[in-house]
């Protein structure tokens, strides 16, 4: 693994604190001077390869965690916030942003939260019209709080994941027999009987604690029925663990804690149906063919794509991917990225991204080689899926699932086999969103970038009615 200059002062301080060592003791253990360690911890000097190896050998530092992780995601989110015209008189350098995210991540999170509140306030005021005198709520929604929580923990929760994997092994879950095993475990362990009965309002499941009956809608796809049974197991088996995680996340409202619990139940259910190590082996063996993975584990395409985004176990990581779910209006309803590609928090996604094409070709996996303005290249995949219970009168929401990886990992995906990964012309230029994209000559641009001025020539008209200066 090629590693450039790494400034990991905060990580080194955490390792030293965990070992209860002074700077001189810690420096002696890894064979460097105390002054060098002090400079490393304050991000004044990068760590050398020799120091990295010593940290990995003596303190179990996972080198794979250093290439991507929270710092990249936090850096992207902070850079987006500071691109707002509100900060027109301040344009931080990349080095300044790195110093803040590496040395004071709490401050970075706080600034992002304040900016989100400002954005919501501005958007609501712009649409208030005759209601400007009324109170405006600017609090972060519980849903947004929880989405950010999963995003910044790398979409991986070690205790829940390993416990779900242990339980899957104990139950001997096998493809084809999963339904019977899950239902039997619920009855034996918790006295819960599973019945299948249609429910109103497109409901998938309902649990009656008094009668100990779990009702699952029989019109839901088989993989959805299994998943809902697994969710019930999560609620019973991992209730204490889940409550500890949700209450320890520092949410500001009880509503956010409740939303987080739902997310954690779903996380445990996915890890139970697709146990980490067997799923990781299958992903490598099948070269991330999501349709074959879905068939092998009896899961939906969305469940498989989501699970691929959680393969971040220290020492046993999968290919770092990005994953998003987009509705027809362009709203990103799920998002996570273990790559340098980070999704915009405000505004629509780049129209050049192949995710939008998926709605035009239902059931087909759309491929794209893409390059972002920072020069990073990606293999992008997208497929349209429908959710719902079936039936003429049933609602059938449609989504595009988007996932991919940096092109250096593309050979691990079957979808890259006949693509030219070396020719620059094979890669289409895409961005994150128009308001923070610096590309000047883009015919698909919706709005000018925040950080750039525009000029308008009444005697000249191109694809856009302005030029970016």
UniProtKB/TrEMBL annotation:
Pfam families hit by this protein: HTH_3, Peptidase_M78, ScfRs
Gene Ontology MF terms: DNA binding; DNA-binding transcription factor activity
Domain HTH cro/C1-type: 12-66
Highest taxon listed in the record's lineage: Bacteria
GO CC annotations on file: cytosol
Gene3D superfamilies recorded: lambda repressor-like DNA-binding domains
UniProt keyword terms in alphabetical order: DNA-binding, Transcription, Transcription regulation
InterPro entries in alphabetical order: Cro/C1-type_HTH, HTH_RamB, IrrE_HExxH, Lambda_DNA-bd_dom_sf, ScfR_C, TransReg_Diox_bact_type
UniProt similarity note: Belongs to the short-chain fatty acyl-CoA assimilation regulator (ScfR) family.
Name of the protein this chain belongs to: Transcriptional regulator, XRE family
Natural source organism: Pseudorhizobium banfieldiae
């Amino acid at each position: 693994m090629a590693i450039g200059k790494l400034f990991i002062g905060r990580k080194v301080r955490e390792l030293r604190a965990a070992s209860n060592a002074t700077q001189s003791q810690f420096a002696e253990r890894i064979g460097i001077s105390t002054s060098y360690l002090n400079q490393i911890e304050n991000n004044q000097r990068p760590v050398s390869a020799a120091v990295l190896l010593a940290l990995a050998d003596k303190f179990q530092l996972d080198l794979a965690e250093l290439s991507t992780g929270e710092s990249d995601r936090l850096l992207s989110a902070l850079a987006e916030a500071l691109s707002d015209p509100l900060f027109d008189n301040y344009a931080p350098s990349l080095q300044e942003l790195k110093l803040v995210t590496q040395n004071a991540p709490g401050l970075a999170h706080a600034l992002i939260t304040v900016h989100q509140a400002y954005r919501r306030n501005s958007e609501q005021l712009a649409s208030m019209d005759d209601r400007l005198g009324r109170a405006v709520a600017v609090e972060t929604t519980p849903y947004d709080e929880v989405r950010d929580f999963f995003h910044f923990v790398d979409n991986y929760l070690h205790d829940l994941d390993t416990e779900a994997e242990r339980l899957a092994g104990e139950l001997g879950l096998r493809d084809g027999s999963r339904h019977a095993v899950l239902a039997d475990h619920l009855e034996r362990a918790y006295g819960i009987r599973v019945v299948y009965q249609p429910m109103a309002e497109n409901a998938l499941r309902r649990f009656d604690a008094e009668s100990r009956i779990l009702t699952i809608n029989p019109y839901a796809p088989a993989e959805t029925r299994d998943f809902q049974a697994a969710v019930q197991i999560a609620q019973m088996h991992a209730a204490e663990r889940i409550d500890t995680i949700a209450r320890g996340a520092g949410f500001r409202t009880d509503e956010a804690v409740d939303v987080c619990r739902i997310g954690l139940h779903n996380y445990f259910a996915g890890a139970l149906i697709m146990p980490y190590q067997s799923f990781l082996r299958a992903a490598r063996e099948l070269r991330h063919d999501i349709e074959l993975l879905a068939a092998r584990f009896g899961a939906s395409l969305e469940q498989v794509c989501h699970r691929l985004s959680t393969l971040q176990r220290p020492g046993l990581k999968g290919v770092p991917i990005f994953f998003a779910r987009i509705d027809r209006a362009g709203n990103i309803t799920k998002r996570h990225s273990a790559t340098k590609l980070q999704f915009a928090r405000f505004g629509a996604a780049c129209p050049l991204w192949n995710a939008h094409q998926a709605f035009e070709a239902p059931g087909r996996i759309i491929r794209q080689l893409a390059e972002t303005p920072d020069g990073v290249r990606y293999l992008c995949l997208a497929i349209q899926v429908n959710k719902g219970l079936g039936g003429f009168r049933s609602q059938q929401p449609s989504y595009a699932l988007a996932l991919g990886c940096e092109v250096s990992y593309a050979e691990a995906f079957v979808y890259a086999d006949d693509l030219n990964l070396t020719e620059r012309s094979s890669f289409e230029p895409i961005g994150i969103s128009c308001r923070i994209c610096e590309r000047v000559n883009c015919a698909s641009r919706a709005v000018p970038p925040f950080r750039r001025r525009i000029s308008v020539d009444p005697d000249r008209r191109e694809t856009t009615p302005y030029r970016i200066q």
